[in-house]
Every structure is written in structure tokens, then in C-alpha cells.
Amino acid sequence: MKLVSKERVGLKVRKRYDVHIPYERLQKSELVSRESKERLEQYKRSLDYFAIQKRIIRLSEKLEQSYRNK
Prior knowledge:
Elements: E1 2-9, E2 12-18, H1 22-28, H2 34-46, H3 49-68
Antiparallel strand pairs: 1-2
């Protein structure tokens, strides 16, 4: 989340955030070329989220085991 604004209300500070992920902000940006946006879209489609999640779990378990054997 990206902080968009801060507003002081009495003693408190109210913060407002942009809920878009960085990928969505890049796709909306006019500063990024069309070619870069297309490459980013192809890369996103190529990701296998289940495989990534399994790898994260496996590495977390390995890290925890390494910590226990310290």
C-alpha cells in the first residue's frame, strides 16, 4: 500500500492509502512505455503462483529447521 495523504485531525493523524498493487500502478502510468507494459503482462501471466507458494513453504521450513539446529 502506498501512502497517498496525511491529514491532522486534532491530536491524531489520519492516513489515506492507495490500495492498488505496484503492478496496477505501473499499468496505469503514462510514464511507462507500451512495450514495457506488454512485457510485464507476459511475465505476470507466466508466473505459477502455486509453485511459488510451495517453494516459499519449503524454504520457510528449511529456515526453521536450520534455526532449531543452531
